[in-house]
Design goal:
Order of helices and strands: HHHEHHEHEEEHEEHEHHHHEEHEHEH
Strand content: 5-15%
Number of helices: 15
Radius of gyration: 22 Å
Low-confidence stretches: none
Shape: globular
Oligomer: single chain
Structural class: alpha/beta
Number of strands: 12
Largest sheet: 8 strands, mixed
Mean pLDDT: 96
Strand order of the largest sheet: 3-4-8-5-9-12-10-11
Distance between the termini: 48 Å
Helix content: 25-40%
């Protein structure tokens, strides 16, 4: 077997010390030997096959925590040592727990001493969904909800960090090839939550002050159907199977070209901000209908994903928004000169902390995007952040640099 499921298992086995090889998504001999070693250590049949029993033992590590029943002699300190974690993490995962009065038979969440969000694998919707479950269990102070559904019924999750009056909104993966923006936002959620529990700062920012001052709302994957099409390929049970092949010029390979949602609509050209100009410009690019990119749809917010993001915005009072894309290491900050004067000053600060160039869009890219619509409707600062360099989809090997470039911007945007 090969694919994103194998990459996830390889990354996990590597994280917990069983797999020294590369994360290549190929279940070869080295991966098999790592599985056998894990099976032996956990009293399982060492056959090198990830069947139901082996997966049951692996799943808590994928989630990053396990449920544990308190037994005679247990203390928070001893549990932390046994599971390679900290007492602070155990207390944080169990609101209301009295660490000095554990009761035999009591059920607790034990977060493992490993991170949940992997940043060395292709990041599918299924992986993100599991990560959200794991983060919510480890950090129950996070607010997790469903803002809407994709065309194929996948959840458009939002995560809220903080309880302050200053509301900001970050989103990622409007475009399917640009899925690397989803683990970027998920890793930020994890690192912020970890620092909050440990009462420490990140890059000089006091996360507890940010928590009290701001509410950060994040939709990490706006286009889950498109992301899975790019990463997992076209499945025979897809209701748009024949249409997608036709829209993709007869090809079943979507991994290098597909930016749109599952109906062939480019979600970042589907907002009501000079949408008609985007529609008129399609002919210049040879676009006559649904396809891999730049088709604006039959009307603004025709797609459930873009309508969800617009409705989510309308239902809140966001002072500032960041829409994450790739690539180019550039920050787009204006729309038809409607951005307020403060938007450029904030953009210059973002440029300083990220090293990204502050710029403006041109051509068909100038219309009907999310940040365009936000600036038009609210006359508040809105930014499209283009991370990384190269050709989409960017390789996951760029992740560490991308995260390092953007972490301070994600913190600064909540307080600027």
């Amino acid at each position: 077997m090969r694919g994103t499921d194998v990459m996830e298992i390889q990354a996990l086995l590597q994280k917990i010390g069983y797999y020294p090889g590369s994360i290549d998504g190929i279940f070869g001999p080295q991966t098999q030997q790592a599985v056998i070693a894990f099976q032996r250590d956990n009293g399982l049949t060492p056959d090198g096959i990830i069947g139901p029993n082996t997966y049951r033992f692996l799943e808590p590590f994928l989630l990053g925590y396990r449920r544990y029943t308190i037994q005679a002699g247990d203390t928070i300190y001893n549990l932390a040592r046994r599971f390679y974690t900290s007492t602070a993490r155990i207390v944080a995962a169990n609101p209301g727990l009295n660490p000095y009065n554990l009761r035999i038979g009591q059920q607790v969440i034990i977060p493992f001493g490993i991170d949940v969000v992997d940043t060395n694998i292709d990041y599918t919707y299924e992986i993100m969904e599991r990560d959200i479950q794991g983060l919510k269990a480890r950090y129950p102070f996070l607010e997790v909800g469903i803002a809407g559904k994709s065309v194929l019924g996948k959840n458009l999750y939002y995560i809220k960090i903080g309880n302050g009056p200053n509301q900001v909104f970050y989103n990622g993966a409007h475009h399917a090839l640009e899925w690397i923006t989803s683990p970027l936002l998920m890793k930020f959620i994890e690192n912020f939550s970890k620092a909050y529990v440990e009462e420490r700062s990140i890059r000089g920012y006091d996360v507890r002050d940010i928590w009290d001052q701001s509410s950060i709302y994040i939709i990490p994957m706006v286009n889950p159907d498109g992301v899975d099409l790019v990463l997992n390929g076209l499945q025979p049970d897809n209701p748009y199977y024949n249409d997608l092949i036709r829209w993709n010029n007869g090809s079943t390979n979507f991994s290098q070209v597909w930016q749109a949602n599952i109906r062939g609509v480019d979600l970042n050209h589907n907002y009501n901000a000079l949408w008609q100009r985007s529609k008129e410009a399609e002919a210049q690019y040879g676009i006559t209908g649904p396809g891999p990119t730049r088709y604006s749809g039959p009307y603004p917010e025709s797609e459930p994903e873009s309508k969800t993001v617009a409705d989510f915005t309308r239902n809140h009072n966001f002072r500032l928004v960041l829409a994450y894309h790739s690539q180019g290491e550039v920050i787009y900050w204006n729309f038809q000169n409607m951005a307020p004067p403060v938007a450029r000053r904030i953009g210059e600060l973002f440029s300083q902390v990220s090293g990204y160039l502050l710029d403006v869009t041109y051509g068909i890219a100038s219309y009907a995007g999310y940040k365009d619509w936000f600036i038009q409707e609210y006359r508040r600062p809105g930014y499209t952040i283009e991370v990384g360099r190269g050709r989409n989809p960017l390789p996951i090997q760029q992740f560490d640099k991308i995260y390092n470039d953007n972490e301070e911007m994600l913190l600064l945007a909540a307080v600027v």
